[in-house]
Amino acid sequence: MRLMKLFSLFGKVALVTGGSRGIGFSTAKVFSENGAHVVITSKDSSRLQNSASKLSNTIGIAADIKNENDVKRVIEQTVEKFGKIDILVNNAGIFPKIKKLHEIDESEWQEVLDVNLTGQFRFTKAAIPYLKKSSGSIINISSDAGLKAYEGFNADAYSASKAALIILTKCWALEYAKDKIRVNCICPGVVDTDMTKPFLKTSKDREFMNSEHPIGRIGQPEEVAKAILYFASDDSAWTTGAVLTVDGGESIK
Ligand SMILES: NC(=O)c1ccc[n+]([C@@H]2O[C@H](COP(=O)([O-])OP(=O)(O)OC[C@H]3O[C@@H](n4cnc5c(N)ncnc54)[C@H](OP(=O)(O)O)[C@@H]3O)[C@@H](O)[C@H]2O)c1
Q1: CA 1 to centroid of ligand 1, rounded, Å
Q2: Residues 250 and 212: beta-carbon distance below 8 Å
Q3: Of the listed 130, 150, 158, 230, which one is catalytic?
Q4: CA–CA gap between residue 21 and residue 133 (Å, rounded)
Q5: Ligand 1 atom nearest 190 alpha carbon
Q6: Fold classified for 13-192+222-246
Q7: Which residue of 116, 182, 227, 241 has the fewest C-beta atoms within 10 A of its own C-beta?
């Protein structure tokens, strides 16, 4: 029996923002294991280079997503090194301290939007000329927090940034369909990464978070990475503007 190989990225060049750890790192790993050349980018250079060294066909280029010149440099160096960009994963993100809206300083609000929303705009804008040439694929990492409100989850700037990414996915998908660029979005539930560590300090915390997901547990970063792989590969060639929840059923409650 001949088995069909799905989701190959052989010959593709992928750029993953926030690739030093968590969902971004798992995505880079899954991509490289499926044949892609991968560039990971994030702010902390030593963590980034350490992560890149663990993966085959992967390099790290450090950059602050809040700095437009840094972002342009990542795009230029990626093309210098590999000649093109086929896949952009807009994954870098931060999570603010839980506070009610009236307790947030404007600077805290701006910081979250600068990284989680304007950062994705910066990378996408700089990559578009190359994605046009390659008929590329963009995958935006949003969140269930962009889909619905949760009791006691007071992270309004985060929710706003993630909801904005959902509509931008649809806007960009429509704008660039004629250029054969596809744009899709993933909304994870709670995933076991550094970002969620503060909510998973005790076994009671973990039990609670597990119970919030109808499947009975929180997710692992590679479970999100496999969904990203689908959107990155040519096997999803007829899918654009889609929003996929990968969340153990959390958002259906
Ligand atoms: N974990 C979850 O439960 C969950 C759920 C839904 C959605 N998400 C989304 O999934 C994405 C990845 O989350 P994660 O849990 O994997 O997060 P994480 O483990 O905290 O990793 C965040 C990544 O973003 C990078 N980053 C943060 N600020 C940056 C900046 N100013 N410039 C460049 N890079 C920056 C970090 O780089 P450094 O290493 O240099 O700091 C790191 O690589 C985020 O967009 C998050 O909102 C996560």
Answers
A1: 42
A2: yes
A3: 158
A4: 29
A5: 3
A6: Rossmann fold (3.40.50)
A7: 241
Q: Which atom of ligand 1 is nearest to the CA of 224?
A: 10
C-alpha closest to that of 184 among 145, 140, 223: 140
- Which position has the token pair 């706003």? 160
Structure-token match 């931008």, residue found: 168
Q: Which residue's entry shows tokens 């490289």?
A: 32
SS3 content of the chain, % helix, strand, coil (to 5): 50, 15, 35
pLDDT, one tens digit per residue, over 217-235 is 999 999 999 999 999 999 9
Q: How far apart are CA 136 and CA 182, in angstroms?
A: 6
Q: Among 104, 136, 105, which Cα is nearest to 11's?
A: 136
Q: Candidates 195, 210, 213: which one to mutate for ligand 1, based on the most atoms within 8 Å of Cβ?
A: 195
Which residues lie closer than 8 Å to 46 by C-beta, 6 or more apart? none
Let me know if 150 is a catalytic residue: no
For ligand 1, atom 37, which residue shows the shortest CA distance?
42
Distance 20 CA to ligand 1 centre (A): 9
Domain ranges of the chain: 13-192+222-246
Report d(CA 25, CA 147) in Å as an integer. Answer: 24
Q: For residue range 72-97, what is the model confidence (pLDDT) as tens digits?
A: 999 999 999 999 999 999 999 999 99
Is 2's pLDDT higher than 90?
A: no
163 CA distance to ligand 1 middle (Å): 16
User: Chain-centre distance of CA 109, in angstroms?
Assistant: 20
